[in-house]
Recover the amino acids of this structure.
């Protein structure tokens, strides 16, 4: 697609879609070679063609004006009510529609065959409108009859070259060539028709009345092969469209769909006319109006397909048309059936019957519509139907708790038929995208995959990255995305929540680590700062003491006392520092716990791993053991305590049990509660088992990686 | 004695140097980090190096590591490691690895006579282990331990032995006669199944090694 599209000419339908400007060749199925290259815009030849297109269009308008003057009897005509006044506006529309569309295409793509078929197809038949002034009433009449095939020549021509302006293959040149010969031959031979005009035009003399060549043509039946050729051409046009439709993929298929959709309206209009003739005794202006509408729809469809503006809306349009046409027929049938049926039972023509039938139809409308929609989806939009069903099944499984909403990514990929498709959830708080695993990225990766936003209530929830070819199946894409939007939103919320939780946990751990570092720093400062100063002070005192003369020996005990005080202060500091963070932790948890056990007033069994874990985790484990030991000695009157620290894969299990009185509870603000918070800060669990009279066991499980 | 001092706290370093010089020793160099310590040891080949455990740049255990290196490169230089707090594990290993090594808490300096004696002892090839460290090695008593067979007095004597003291010093500290101390020592060695040895230094090493093995963790 992007290969042939000029810059700034992308279509945006429904969800906004960004596409990388440069696509790898081959990733697009069939690029329709209808192209506008910026270079063409400045080509002088192009300019000439544009002017010519304008001239042709102007010619058509002039001819239609001439026709209007005839109708308004400003220019006298050979007969009164040459064309009925009420019909003329339709004729104007019928010729203006292809002219306008042809001109629009020609201005954009002057070399496009289709533009010229439309322009000339409208212009040539309108020449007839001024024929009387140019060649007199007789020749005008003769040519009017002869050029009748021109009216349907242009649709056949379009059928041959739609949508890319070229014939299907070189062999089709013969078909197209014989079509041209047939049409031209038929028109030419008809010009020599020697027959007198039938009433009421018998008084106009045929200028070629009794012409020898004309007689020859009629007698030998020379016109027959040409007329047959015209018929065959019509049929060939249909065949060409069918072949194209079957072969088409990608954009070309969408283009063909537009044509088929519009062509579908013509039989509908004809059906209406037939029905109207049967029931109402003639469709009159209404059926004419419908045919006009069908023609306008056809040329509009051609225009859309060629300039490819809103090209992608076709599948939905075809789908809706099918649904509502079927629905109309069903409801109409039901209404008619009910009216007739009830009319037999009750009195015919009763207001009650009409009211009841109307009510039934009104009630049946909504459920019937969804049934018909489903039927049409299933029959005519298999992929979309299957895709949407796939997503619905997934939603059911989510509801039943068998799958997590985050699995929507692979489900969407399968529903879209693109195994490489992935869903990235949008996190508005952080302004980043995240996949189902919680990996975040500020920007989407730049590659040749297309992106389609998923929105819910107008707010972006996620972006699907998929094969650009999926864009050619707009109905599938939009249907599947609409069906998945709830799951996507759920998944997005869950991913977001999980990421936020992880962030909270990470920040809590960072705070704990910072606190641990702070303790470490404080311990260092106590040892290396205040303590050193005290030692120095003590040394100076000692030197002073030792330098005293013998007579001053009486002062010595006072000096000793000062130094003793200093020593006590140092011991105090050391004690405080150990409480802040035992320096023995430098040697590992095992060493620190052993020290702790030694200083305890009751026997303590220690079992601890020799291997090291992160210092902050060792500290947490140490303080758990320390607090538990203090509790055991202070409150539980334990006579024996056992401390265990066991490394189990990625966790450190710390348990302290005693044989004390038990009955310990986790109370807010208590030492145990503080421990629980400390352990939780590392993402661990903390448990106190303390039945009265049966001792206490405190267990902490702290995650530790590495 | 020719002494070098390595400590990053100038105040403490100068105080220590003063004390040692007052006692008649020669402080040949005073440095503030391990790198400089190794340089001055190589330059002066002193009798004793007094080394602070924590020094720049990381304030972890630079002093200890430098001590180990000096041990290898200059075995004739005795080493006395000073620490702000008990981080004895490595110290005990070093002390039990041979004589001429001491490990003391910094505030032991305040008991000047004791400190000087320890320094001189280390210098003579003996050892000095801080009482705090010894206390950790000896406690707590466990039933299945040979140590639990010792009498309280014998434990006291064992502790002082582990600190690196000879019989005379032990006798002085405990107000006992040297003869009594000798009796205790014989009894202790017997109970711990250690060979009787007349050489104090070797005996101390045997005791420290024994305690290190016996100590949990």
């Amino acid at each position: 697609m992007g290969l042939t599209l000029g810059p700034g000419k992308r279509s945006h339908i429904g969800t906004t879609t960004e596409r990388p400007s440069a696509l790898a060749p081959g990733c697009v199925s069939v690029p329709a070679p209808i192209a506008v290259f910026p270079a063409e815009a400045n080509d002088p030849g192009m300019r000439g063609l544009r002017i010519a297109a304008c001239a042709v269009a102007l010619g058509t308008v002039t001819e239609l004006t001439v026709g209007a003057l005839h109708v308004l009897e400003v220019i006298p005509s050979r007969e009164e009510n040459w064309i009925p006044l009420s019909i003329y506006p339709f004729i104007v529309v019928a010729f203006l529609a292809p002219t306008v569309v042809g001109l629009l295409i020609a201005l954009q793509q002057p070399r496009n065959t289709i533009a010229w078929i439309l322009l000339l197809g409208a212009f040539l038949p309108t020449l007839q409108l001024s024929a009387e002034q140019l060649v007199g009433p007789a020749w005008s009449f003769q040519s009017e009859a002869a050029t009748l095939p021109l009216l349907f020549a242009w649709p056949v021509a379009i059928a041959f070259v739609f949508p890319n302006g070229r014939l299907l293959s070189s062999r089709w040149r013969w078909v197209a060539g014989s079509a041209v010969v047939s049409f031209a031959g038929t028109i030419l031979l008809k010009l020599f028709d020697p027959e007198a005009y039938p009433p009421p035009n018998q008084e106009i003399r045929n200028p070629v009345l009794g012409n020898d060549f004309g007689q020859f043509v009629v007698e030998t039946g020379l016109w027959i092969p040409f007329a047959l050729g015209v018929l065959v051409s019509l049929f060939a046009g249909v065949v060409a469209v069918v072949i194209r439709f079957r072969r088409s993929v990608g954009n070309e298929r969408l283009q063909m769909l537009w044509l088929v959709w519009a062509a579908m309206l013509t039989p509908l209009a004809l059906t209406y006319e037939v029905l109207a003739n049967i029931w109402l005794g003639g469709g009159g202006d209404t059926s004419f109006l419908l045919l006009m509408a069908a023609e306008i729809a056809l040329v509009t469809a051609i225009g859309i397909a060629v300039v490819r503006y809103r090209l992608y809306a076709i599948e939905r349009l075809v789908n809706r048309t099918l649904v509502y046409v079927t629905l109309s027929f069903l409801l109409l049938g039901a209404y008619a059936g009910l009216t007739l049926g009830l009319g037999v039972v009750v009195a015919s023509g009763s207001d009650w019957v009409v009211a009841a039938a109307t009510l039934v139809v009104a009630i049946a409308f909504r459920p019937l519509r969804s049934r018909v929609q489903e039927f049409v989806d299933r029959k005519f939009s298999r992929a979309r139907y299957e895709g949407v069903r796939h997503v619905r099944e997934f939603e059911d499984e989510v509801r039943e708790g068998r799958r997590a909403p985050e699995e929507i990514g692979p489900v969407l990929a399968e529903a879209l038929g693109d195994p490489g498709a992935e869903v990235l959830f949008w996190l508005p708080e952080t302004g980043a995208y995240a996949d189902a695993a919680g990996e975040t990225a500020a920007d989407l990766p730049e590659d040749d995959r297309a992106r389609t936003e998923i929105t819910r209530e107008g707010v972006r929830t996620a972006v699907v990255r998929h094969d650009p070819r999926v864009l050619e199946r707009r109905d599938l894409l939009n249907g599947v995305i609409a069906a998945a939007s709830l799951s996507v939103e759920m998944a997005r919320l869950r991913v977001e929540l999980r990421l936020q939780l992880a962030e909270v946990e990470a920040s809590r751990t960072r705070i704990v680590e910072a606190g641990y570092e702070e303790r470490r720093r404080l311990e260092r400062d106590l040892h290396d700062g205040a303590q050193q100063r005290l030692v120095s002070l003590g040394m100076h005192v000692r030197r002073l003491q030792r330098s005293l003369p013998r007579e001053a020996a009486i002062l010595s005990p006072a000096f000793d006392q000062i130094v003793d005080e200093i020593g006590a202060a140092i011991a105090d500091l050391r004690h405080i520092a150990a409480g802040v963070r035992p320096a023995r932790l430098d040697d590992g948890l095992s060493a620190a716990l052993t020290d702790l056990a030694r200083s305890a007033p009751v026997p303590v069994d220690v079992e601890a791993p020799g291997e090291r874990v992160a210092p902050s985790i060792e500290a947490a484990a140490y303080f758990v053991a320390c607090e538990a030991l203090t509790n055991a000695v202070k409150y539980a009157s334990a006579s024996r305590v056992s401390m265990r620290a066991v490394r189990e894969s990625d966790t450190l299990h710390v348990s302290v049990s005693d044989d004390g009185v038990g009955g310990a509870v986790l109370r807010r603000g208590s030492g145990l509660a503080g421990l629980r918070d400390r352990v939780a800060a590392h993402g661990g669990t903390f448990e106190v088992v303390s039945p009265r009279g049966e001792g206490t066991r405190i267990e902490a499980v702290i995650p530790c990686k590495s | 004695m020719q002494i070098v001092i390595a400590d990053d706290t100038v105040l403490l370093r100068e105080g220590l140097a003063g004390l040692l010089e007052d006692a008649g020793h020669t402080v040949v160099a005073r440095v503030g980090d391990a790198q400089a310590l190794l340089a001055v040891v190589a330059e002066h080949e002193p009798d004793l190096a007094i080394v602070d455990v924590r020094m720049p740049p990381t304030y972890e255990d630079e002093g200890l590591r430098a001590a180990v290196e000096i041990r290898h490169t200059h075995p004739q230089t005795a080493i006395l490691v000073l620490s702000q707090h008990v981080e004895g594990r490595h110290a005990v290993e070093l002390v039990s690895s041979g004589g001429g090594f001491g490990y003391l808490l910094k505030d032991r300096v305040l008991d000047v006579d004791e400190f000087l004696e320890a320094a001189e002892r280390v210098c003579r090839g003996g050892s000095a282990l801080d009482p705090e460290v010894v206390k950790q090695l000896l406690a707590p008593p466990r039933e299945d331990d040979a140590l639990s067979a010792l009498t309280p007095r014998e434990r006291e004597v064992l502790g002082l032995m582990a600190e690196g003291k000879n019989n005379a010093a032990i006798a002085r500290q405990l107000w006992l006669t040297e003869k009594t101390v000798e009796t205790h020592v014989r009894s202790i060695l017997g109970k711990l199944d250690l060979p009787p040895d007349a050489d104090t230094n070797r005996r101390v090493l045997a005791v420290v090694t024994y305690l290190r093995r016996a100590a949990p963790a």
